[in-house]
Amino acid sequence: MQPTPANQTTAAAQNNATATAQANGKTQADANATATAQTNASATATAQASATAVALAQLGKSWTSHQGVTGNYLAGIAWSSSQSKYVAVGDGGTIIASSDGIKWNLQNSPTSSYLSSITWSNSQSQYVAAGIGGMILTSPDGSSWTLRSSGQSNQLNGIASSDSQYVAVGNSGTIVTSNNGSTWATQASGTANRLVGITWTGSQFIAVGDNGTILISSNGSTWASQTSNAASTNLYSVTSAAGKDVAVGDNGTIVTSSDGGSTWVLTNSGQTYELYAVGSSVNKLSATQFVAVGGGKILISNDGSTWTPPSTNVANFLHSVTSSTGQFVAVGEHGAIFTSL
Prior knowledge:
This protein is mainly β. It contains two helices and 27 strands. The chain folds into two domains: 5-57; 62-340, Methylamine Dehydrogenase, Chain H (7 Propeller). The protein has helices at 5-23, 28-58, and strands at residues 63-66, 74-80, 85-90, 95-98, 105-106, 115-121, 126-131, 135-139, 146-149, 156-161, 166-170, 175-178, 185-187, 195-200, 205-209, 214-217, 224-226, 235-241, 244-249, 254-257, 265-267, 275-282, 288-294, 298-301, 318-324, 327-332, 337-340.
């Protein structure tokens, strides 16, 4: 009778252990003990790999709704790892903060106007929020805020930060940059299309907007237009992780790039509703994960190309998503807040 794979592993371990024991002058009992240990170690490694695969498949599939502290529309959210704090912004100048994404507190805001987006800069230890009329707010802690001017009157829809600067994008192709969050300069975008979302990949900024607009820049000042393969679609958000850039927009549109934003491929999300935001993170199993949110839906992906909905039903329109290690937090209409498990 031919041995099974498991028996083959055990037999190989036994032969190796016996040969080693004989070479070292040890007894057959020593060899048997060594073989057993080797077999157990192999079985443990296999079981751990299997458990990790199962756990990875479940990550992001369960989401919990939390009672917020406002009924206002929440349009943007950011996470600070150094402060261990989420900060979300939205209608009426709303600013709320949380250390865990579950319990939130209202913060004093210097404005009652719409705030669309927010980012955190590790290098400058500062939150920067943007909004209507070119408005900029800065804060070192998410609690105390200072009103700034971008020099623009167009609404700013998205903001991102690198180690050395902030870049905000807005209506009519508006792009403004700052190296400190206080003083801003207007840059030429080369487009009149509304720009909605922006991200820093680690080496360049990618901005997206109406009519499939995608712009890339290494310095925030000089921008190059790219072909999105979604020319008739409005794109609202973009993220980058593990060498993959992912942008989302109208009618379930998802486009991805694996070559630094030069070539974009249209991906089938299987959905037809709007996707307003996409985020990415290295999760608690040290694997990259993407989450897209929008018109009452959430999609998750481990590679940016294959997307599936979670088991949780979401009744609210979600407008923004961010992450800390192991947890995504999404916000949206009526002060909706959802966290992933």
